[in-house]
Automatic annotation (TrEMBL):
Recorded GO MF terms: cobalt-precorrin-5B C1-methyltransferase activity
Biological process annotations from GO: anaerobic cobalamin biosynthetic process; methylation
Pathway(s) the chain acts in: Cofactor biosynthesis; adenosylcobalamin biosynthesis; cob(II)yrinate a,c-diamide from sirohydrochlorin (anaerobic route): step 6/10
NCBIfam families: cbiD, PRK00075.1-1
EC number: 2.1.1.195
Encoding gene (name): cbiD
Name under which the protein is recorded: Cobalt-precorrin-5B C(1)-methyltransferase
Species name: Streptomyces spectabilis
Cross-referenced InterPro entries: CbiD (IPR002748), CbiD_sf (IPR036074)
Recorded family membership: Belongs to the CbiD family.
């Protein structure tokens, strides 16, 4: 099979004709790299090139730069490609300041970047809303610049986004307790653009490619982390992977008409809790995590009323999962089972065995349904 015919995430994106973009995490990493290089050498690299988690090496033009004694600032304008991202066009700045030897890399929230104020997120309360993968990406690039130019790598990075507090009002951050601005996000560094019609068409093409290649087991994944999980679990080839994004219904309805022997649905716990509750479109603008539904599932799994009430009042789906895990209530498995049942209902008796895997943000499996159906 030629590379043109192969399936998987990359082939789906190419098929849509949509232009990918860069996450705020990529932009912050590029700005950090440029600022720290200038701090050590006196000159800003422009454009500045970074290396993303999957090895891509994009270059970013600088939109702002400033160098003073012991401190440098660089800014990059976010390009979200063809994705209707509210942060498209935002100026992401990183200010890098030297710290004493042994301090490591310290992150601060500048203007327009939020601070975590409630539990249930992948960062502790009080921390700037710079997510774990972008943090690691920035640490890695600081280390590379330090090695290249004789620095210690001990720096404070203050990330800011011009007008970020205003932009954040159009996001879920205020409801999640991330106050003061945006989150710096991204797991791959790339924004995958979603046009509903184009992406659903690409899902259908992905199923067709898998069937033409003789694949009997395919996986619908919500993103790159879930793709890695199913590859580790089942050693599936690339053309058996369907990047369903938020369009779980599109996968299920097409597989109903074009069956395969087995379908694995894998995604984040919060997203799949929406499927479990009967939503087929998992986008945050069109469906939300129902904590009352999770509380009912927790009761089914042995939670007492006090725990169920805490689950119903949890800040996020992850917080609800953590509460149940601490009490020995298998909420992840219950969500996976319920999501599998919803998938089977959509399949309407099609001869397809279904299993569901729920993961956390790090890709750790937190719930399984086991295979059924068919």
């Amino acid at each position: 099979m030629s590379s043109e015919a192969k399936g998987g995430r990359g082939a789906q994106l190419k098929h849509t004709g949509l232009r990918p973009g860069w996450t705020t995490g990529s932009c912050a990493t590029a700005a950090t790299t440029a600022a720290y290089t200038a701090l050590l050498t006196g000159a800003f690299p422009d454009p500045v090139t970074i290396t993303l988690p999957k090895g891509q090496t994009p270059s970013f033009a600088l939109a702002a730069e400033e160098l003073t004694e012991g401190r440098a600032m660089a800014g990059v304008v976010k390009d979200a490609g063809d994705d209707p991202d509210v942060t498209h066009g935002a100026l992401v700045r990183a200010t890098v300041r030297r710290l004493p030897a042994g301090s490591g890399v310290v992150f601060r929230a500048g203007p327009g970047v939020g601070t975590v104020t409630r539990p249930g997120l992948p960062l502790p309360v009080g921390e700037p809303a710079v997510n774990p993968v972008p943090r690691q990406l920035m640490r890695d690039h600081v280390a590379r610049v330090a090695a290249a130019h004789g620095g210690s790598g001990d720096v404070e990075i203050t990330v800011s986004v011009d007008h970020g507090e205003e932009i954040a009002r159009s996001t879920w951050n205020p409801r999640l307790g991330i106050l003061g601005g945006l989150s710096i996000l991204g797991t791959t560094g790339i924004v995958v653009p979603y046009s509903c019609s184009a992406w659903i068409d690409s899902i259908r093409r992905g199923v067709d490619v898998a069937r033409a290649a003789g694949r009997t087991h395919v996986a619908g994944c919500t993103g790159s982390t879930s793709e890695r999980t199913v590859v580790a679990e089942y050693d599936l080839p690339e053309d058996a992977l369907l990047d369903m994004g938020d369009f779980a219904g599109a996968v299920l309805k097409y597989v109903r008409r074009h069956p395969v022997d087995r379908l694995t649905v894998c995604g984040g716990f919060a997203k799949l809790s929406k499927l479990a509750a009967g939503h087929l479109d998992l986008h945050s603008a069109r469906s939300q995590v129902d904590k009352g539904f999770l509380a009912a599932l927790a009761r089914r799994g042995g939670a007492d009323e006090a725990l169920a009430a805490r689950v119903a009042d949890a800040n996020t789906g992850l917080a609800a999962l953590q509460l149940c895990a601490a009490a020995g209530v298998p909420l992840g498995d219950l969500v996976a089972l319920e999501a599998r049942d919803q998938a089977l209902a959509v399949l309407r008796g099609a001869p397809v065995v279904v299993d569901v895997i729920c993961i956390d943000r790090a890709g750790t499996v937190v719930g399984r349904s086991g295979p059924s159906g068919g």
